[in-house]
Amino acid sequence: MKVEERLNRIIEEEGAIYFVLVDPENVNYEGLEKIKDYSDAILIGGSSGICELDYVVKEVKKITKLPTILFPGNVDNISKYADAILYMSLFNSLNPYWIITAPALGALKILKYNLEPIPTAYLCIEPAKKTSVGFVGDIKEIPQNKPKITAMYCLSAKFFGFRWAYLEAGSGAEYPINNETIKMAKKVSGINIIVGGGIKKPEIAYEKVLAGADGIVTGTLVEKDPKMIEKVYDAIKKAGREKKWI
Ligand SMILES: CC(C)=CCC/C(C)=C/CC/C(C)=C/CC/C(C)=C/COP(=O)(O)OP(=O)(O)O
Ligand SMILES: O=P(O)(O)OC[C@@H](O)CO
Ligand SMILES: [Mg+2]
Predict the structure, then answer these.
(1) CATH code, domain with 67
(2) How many domains does the chain have?
(3) What is the ipTM of this complex?
(4) I need a labelling partner for 176 at 20 to 30 A (CA). Which of 77, 112, 183, 216 fits?
(5) Smallest-distance ligand from the CA of 27
(6) Best residue for ligand 2 mutational test, from 74, 167, 199 (most atoms within 8 Å of Cβ)
(7) Domain that holds residue 20
(8) How do residues 87-124 score in pLDDT, each as one tens digit?
């Protein structure tokens, strides 16, 4: 089964997906060992790309059978050993390189490596400007008190044929994307909404799923507090079940 089909099936059956993000520069292999039953897929990526990506993907695959999905910070973040790739355009970048040049430069390699592209509109929302992705990605930061702006970008993504939008507050963000922004983005666009950045507690993941997130990403947690992963997973699945009943 294709990775995207599998993800859609999890959303349908369990209400939401949990992605654990592995930053190849900072892999906690011991932590990963512990979380393998408490995640639906592993995202692999970082914004500075100084690492042996092939090695990291192979090591992750030795630890878990979960699908490995690249989360590329640039064109050189592509490994033939992964199963799929978030084929991202950073919609609210000020620099066309991140909107279309980087994705275009990576396209032939993705085809050659037979990686499954998952079309994803990547949106960097406040407080992302204060994080690595905001600096590297030259963003025009979307304010959190204007949910309509995020929603219109998500609708634009849908009109372009994207099936996923990733609402990013930035790795290690001081606070996550607010519920109103997630709710309106989902309601207006109807596409799959991934939410990440600054999610450190199960109750936060829970409320983001109830607000409308189809997928939750945590990265820093597996680096700093891997025992929390099981609790975050349970909270996401609980909210997923409740969302399905509503
Ligand atoms: C589709 C292809 C081939 C490329 C797309 C390239 C694009 C559009 C990238 C968007 C801009 C960017 C720099 C994204 C980085 C996303 C990412 C992997 C963030 C993870 O954050 P960390 O880099 O781990 O943050 P820290 O530095 O705080 O650890
Ligand atoms: O590291 P955290 O804050 O969990 O962020 C995860 C991800 O959204 C970063 O791209
Ligand atoms: Mg990181």
Answers:
(1) 3.20.20.390
(2) 1
(3) 0.96
(4) 77
(5) 3
(6) 199
(7) 3-245
(8) 999 999 999 999 999 999 999 999 999 999 999 999 99
